[in-house]
Automatic annotation (TrEMBL):
Residue ranges of domain C-type lectin in the record: 1-94
Recorded name of the encoding gene: 106080336
Source superkingdom: Eukaryota
Name of the protein in question: C-type lectin domain-containing protein
Species: Biomphalaria glabrata (Bloodfluke planorb)
A Pfam family the protein falls into: Lectin_C
PROSITE patterns reported for this sequence: C_TYPE_LECTIN_2
InterPro entries: C-type_lectin-like (IPR001304), C-type_lectin-like/link_sf (IPR016186), CTDL_fold (IPR016187)
CDD domains registered for this protein in UniProt: CLECT
Amino acid sequence: MVYCQAFGGYLAEVDDNDEFNKLQQFFLNSSPVDLVLIAGSDELKEETWKFQRTGVALPFKSWAPKEPNNKEGKEHCLCLDRGKGGEMNDITCSFVRIARFMCELPDST
């Protein structure tokens, strides 16, 4: 996302369960929105979820029940969904133009 890049970052990439739990709790406790976009897409190959920035396969997924469902064959982007307990959900990528999103900044060490 251009906004994340402006701050030297990128869409948050969930690498493991610990990081997911932190992002999920932050989202559920701090954000008034229903959906928040994070890194991940299967737009290039259905059911093969990768980080957009690096092309690396997602090492961790915590899908909401019955997700990903690729509703109407149009859901290829990844979000956290408040209505599904903050779990991962696939959404249409056209939604990213109006979605809120989480950025990740590289370690400054």
